[in-house]
Amino acid sequence: MEAGVPSARSRALAVLRVRSRALAVGLLPAALAVVLVAARMTDRLAGDPWPVVTLVVCLVAAVVLLVGGAFAAVVLRASPAVTPTVPLSEAAAPDLYRLVRDLADRMDVPPPSAIALTPDCDSWLEDRTHAAHRRSAISAGPESEQGAAPVLVIGSPFLWWMRVAELRAVLAPVVAGTGPSAHPDIADARGFVRGLDAAVDVGNRRGLGWIGAPARLLLRLCRTDATEMERGVAAAASERAQGVDYGLRIVAQEQVGLAYAGWDRLLTRVALPAWRMGRWPAHLDAGVVSALTELSRRDRLAEGFTSRLGERPACDLLEQPGLVDEATSLLAARLFHGGPAEPGPDWSPVDWAAYPEEVVDRKWRAEAARLHAALDALAVPTGRPAGPAGPAVAPTGPAGSAGPGVLPGTSVSPASPASSASPAPSATAGPVTIEATGSARPAVDGFAGPTLERVLGFLTDPAGAGAASEALAGRLSGDVAREERAAGPAAGAGKARGADAVPLFPLQPPRSGRDLLADHVTAMVCCAAVDSAGAAPGMDWLDGPVLLVGGDRRSDLAARVLCLVEDGNPEPLRDWLADLGVRPEKPVRLV
């Protein structure tokens, strides 16, 4: 017997004692009522005040039994949380099932009842035998039968990045956990804790404090023992798995750490911009191989890791890895971004080859359009084409038009047109002055249409006060928030099909106004470079959207944009534009 098993069993019994004591407390008024009634019937408690006392105790006992019975029913029937996963049938991965069963046989433990994939870098066992699962048809397979072994959940990035031998070594201690999990006391204790957790959720969602409060109290009472029970189970599983590929497991754990780093970069830098555009990369797991290979190339600590790629990848254990990759990629978009559960007209997949054109270029154009819509709302004139100085032209179009560069569906506040009687500003005029009405005076003679010069002139601030940046950042924040709220009903179609709790794991906190402004100015610069200097949109596996000039990535733009946004100093950016041959006065295409 492994060293951790006795500890886990003793801790499980401690958890069950909490349940027994709670049951005893609930039955105590009823027991007292039975004693009083029996004493009254045998004339042992005759006379006052025993009739009244007996009646009160009986009423209290009835109420406590009613409330306790309802609470117990909720604990027993409430559905514990089930991690959203992609089920993997044996027909879809017969080699993977054989590998897992072979591991279970070598360690003399029950094999997992099923295998599922999660779009994360982790693996665990999950019990899905709760009666509520069978009633709600969450699991219709053998994993939901009473007494079935837990489901083995495998992180999908492991299948694409790891080799077969490495995956086997990593899964060994996880599969070994089915042995302690089969112990009746441990299984009973785990079921009790899961039931309490589900009862807390029911109480919170339905506003039933009389359910949530006692459930939280019981959880606090058994928290320490439940935690130590799980540690004992993990220790026992680890000890049992030591005889299976132990030496290789040390090397494989290094790949686990590398996978965490590359997967996080791929999601936050590459997938998230696509999700925000209403597109979801359909082969994230295949992309993680490229991302981790690039990370290995850049990181000297990871030298030699790419030599493993000549060995058999674990995804070869799947019959149709492309379809599995697509399903896990869609689930990743649900979990980390909150996208719909199914593809649709506004939620379509994108291949890696089409990513620069369909995501990067569209992202830049959309952000540039939103930036100019915000300038229109602040009454920043676009001016007229280059030539003799003259009156500025307000950003108004035909009747009812919001003006040039307005993103469709964006709410734009009315702007006061510039007075035609005012003299035209010179190219060396001072910074824009934000008035109390929200309008602005142009600092340079602009050009008709959405131009980078218009943005540079508005944000130029020799005094460094940052009033223009603050006003534009605030406007962009409001516009982005309105667009996200407007997109809610579209996402609601997916949520109505069971995605009402996503995103479960948001990747990034909300962006600040300054961050949004820097992103939009960068997008405008990239659009100008593409339209007037022959640059092209590109994608980096670790950094996402990038600007390519002559086929090479330009990574020196961010610092110059920050100098403009935060300090109001356009000179570093103007030098950069001149070096590339970008014409700031030339209108850019926004669609």
Kindly describe this structure.
This protein is of the alpha/beta class and 591 residues long. It contains 19 helices and nine strands. It has helices at residues 4-41, 50-77, 94-107, 131-135, 156-161, 164-176, 178-181, 184-206, 209-240, 246-276, 284-298, 321-337, 355-377, 452-459, 467-486, 488-499, 513-533, 558-567, 571-580; strands at 86-88, 114-118, 124-126, 151-155, 279-281, 348-350, 536-540, 544-549, 552-554. The protein has a four-stranded mixed sheet with strand order 1-2-4-3. The radius of gyration is 32 Å and the shape is flat. The model is unreliable at 384-447 and 489-498 (pLDDT under 50).
User: What value does the Rg take, in angstroms?
Assistant: 32 Å
Average pLDDT, to the nearest integer? 82
**Continuous helix count:** 19
Helix content: 55-70%
Encode the helix/strand succession as letters: HHEHEEHEHHHHHHEHHEHHHHHEEEHH
How many strands in all? 9
Major sheet details: 4 strands, mixed
For the termini, the CA-CA separation is 68 Å
State the oligomer.
single chain
Strand content: 5-15%
Features:
4-stranded mixed beta sheet; 3-stranded antiparallel beta sheet; alpha/beta; 591 residues
